[in-house]
């Protein structure tokens, strides 16, 4: 998904301007959420708030299906999250535009959207990395500051 907003890049995209705006707003919802998911209801409610051109909810549903088919979003039980393709291809965009909330995993150093965060030092770790890292430990401690890891280990 091309999120640059120049006249030339708008022509190079597979999506219309209002579809891209819906995608950007969906990314905002997902990345700024506590668990890395956004409900379909919340995303569909964005359709009437688009600045470019309002979108009907039915049309927004179709656009979301296309984003899932194109592997930009993943959907499960009415909840959407960023697909692996989106995270890989848009990592630099996400890190630069969501500096306050986007983190790299302290273990694998990839972008961590769904992660746990150390309450003491603020490092983040993917849930699978948390599971692997703390598997053999009886008392889990943060790999950065060695404080007790207070999050539930999946």
Automatic annotation (TrEMBL):
A Gene Ontology molecular function term of the record: zinc ion binding
Leading EC class: transferase
Annotated compartments: Chromosome, Telomere; Nucleus
CDD domains: RING-CH-C4HC3_NSE1
Any single biological process term in GO: double-strand break repair via homologous recombination
Gene3D superfamilies, per database record: Winged helix-like DNA-binding domain superfamily/Winged helix DNA-binding domain (1.10.10.10), Zinc/RING finger domain, C3HC4 (zinc finger) (3.30.40.10)
EC code: 2.3.2.27
One CC-aspect GO term: Smc5-Smc6 complex
Keyword tags: Chromosome, DNA damage, DNA recombination, DNA repair, Metal-binding, Nucleus, Telomere, Transferase, Ubl conjugation pathway, Zinc, Zinc-finger
Main subcellular localisation: nucleus
Domain RING-type: 105-146
Pfam families: SMC_Nse1, zf-RING-like
Catalytic activity: S-ubiquitinyl-[E2 ubiquitin-conjugating enzyme]-L-cysteine + [acceptor protein]-L-lysine = [E2 ubiquitin-conjugating enzyme]-L-cysteine + N(6)-ubiquitinyl-[acceptor protein]-L-lysine
Family: Belongs to the NSE1 family.
Subunit and partners: Component of the Smc5-Smc6 complex.
Biological role: RING-type zinc finger-containing E3 ubiquitin ligase that assembles with melanoma antigen protein (MAGE) to catalyze the direct transfer of ubiquitin from E2 ubiquitin-conjugating enzyme to a specific substrate. Involved in maintenance of genome integrity, DNA damage response and DNA repair.
Protein's recorded name: Non-structural maintenance of chromosomes element 1 homolog
């Amino acid at each position: 998904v091309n999120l640059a907003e120049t006249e030339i890049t708008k022509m190079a995209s597979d999506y219309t301007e209002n579809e891209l705006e819906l995608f950007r707003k969906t990314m905002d919802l997902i990345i700024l959420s506590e668990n890395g998911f956004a409900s379909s209801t919340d995303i569909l409610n964005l359709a009437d708030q688009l600045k470019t051109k309002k979108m009907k909810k039915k049309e927004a549903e179709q656009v979301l299906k296309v984003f899932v088919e194109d592997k930009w979003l993943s959907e499960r039980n009415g909840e959407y999250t960023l697909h692996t393709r989106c995270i890989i291809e848009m990592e630099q965009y996400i890190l630069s535009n969501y500096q306050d909330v986007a983190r790299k995993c302290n273990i694998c150093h990839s972008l961590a959207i769904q992660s746990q965060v150390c309450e003491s030092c603020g490092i983040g770790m993917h849930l699978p990395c948390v599971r692997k890292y703390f598997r053999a430990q009886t008392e889990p401690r943060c790999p950065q500051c060695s404080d007790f890891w207070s999050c539930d280990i999946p």
